[in-house]
Amino acid sequence: MAYLDPAAGKARAAKQTAAVTNAAAATAAAAAGATPTKAEYDALLADVNALRTKLNALLTAQRASGQLAT
Q1: Smallest Cα–Cα separation from 55: which of 2, 34, 63?
Q2: Whole-number pLDDT of residue 26
């Protein structure tokens, strides 16, 4: 679907963003006790870092296609 370019006052052709694969399933689980163990913390940190990588890939793809300002 075309949209208007307010600066030029005309319709622009839509560009499609490059595909970004879905995030993998979470590996972290609920803490066994009141205080998380190092392994539980590390699993959560790995999941957060993986999601951050996916989000950055999506933002990069949108910038490359012109859907997001640089």
Answers
A1: 63
A2: 92
Q: Are 27 and 43 in contact (CB under 8 A)?
A: yes
Integer-rounded Cα radius of gyration of the chain: 19
By the 10 Å C-beta count (0-12 exposed, 13-18 middle, 19+ buried), 58 is classed as middle
Other C-beta atoms within 10 Å of 26: how many? 13
pTM for the whole structure: 0.71
Q: Give the burial class of 27: count Cβ atoms within 10 A of its Cβ; 0-12 exposed, 13-18 middle, 19 or more buried.
A: exposed
Which carries the bigger pLDDT value, residue 63 or residue 69?
Answer: 63
Sign of CA dihedral 44, 49, 50, 54: positive
